[in-house]
Amino acid sequence: xxxxxxxxxxxxxxxxxxxxxxxxxxxxxxxxxxxxxxxxxxxxxxxxxxxxxxxxxxxxxxxxxxxxxxxxxxxxxxxxxxxxxxxxxxxxxxxxxxxxxxxxxxxxxxxxxxxxxxxxxxxxxxxxxxxxxxxxxxxxxxxxxxxxxxxxxxxxxxxxxxxxxxxxxxxxxxxxxxxxxxxxxxxxxxxxxxxxxxxxxxxxxxxxxxxxxxxxxxxxxxxxxxxxxxxxxxxxxxxxxxxxxxxxxxxxxxx
Length: 255
Description:
This protein has helices spanning 10-21, 34-41, 72-78, 96-103, 142-155, 164-193, 203-214, 228-231, 237-250, and strands at 2-6, 25-30, 48-50, 62-65, 86-89, 112-118, 135-139, 159-161.
């Protein structure tokens, strides 16, 4: 397929290369920051930097919207696509119906819209294998599902067709298991750094918990007593509150 990207951040950087490696062709890349667009284009064969949001003359079949959801209202209201182009939102929480109204308030467009949601943390310059990366697809019509599933299969062998509610719960699970846990790891690192010890000290502990979780081997559960002396070692008040709440959670029986 011929593809264009609106947005040139982390996700676009990975998807553009993966889709071209599978035989698709990236035609244009738009970004408010032309330098970012040029960087994505530099990894593609024939792509050009698009300087505006008027794609009405584009030869592309699909258009990936890889921008923060906070920018949807502004970008979608300016965006112009070819008559039968398919707009793909790369999003964990954006509502399809709301995005359609932003793009076409009068519902006169022939453009179909769907959601393409990679369940992975992607960052520019850090190449990772996408072959088994879960990709969640949400659509309103079967024709769009065929397009999105075809593109997803070009990248990965783990494709899930989901509802809006399921997608939002998956996104929340990603935050809890990934971003939130990463903050706790960083807090642990700060504590070890303060006594000149390396994080390898707890590497085995972390790996043991992860292995038990992903192999569904129950770790022994034990309630943690609230240690007020430990709180004194945590400098940030917000982290102290998180510590207290996590201790309280450990004291509640799992249902």
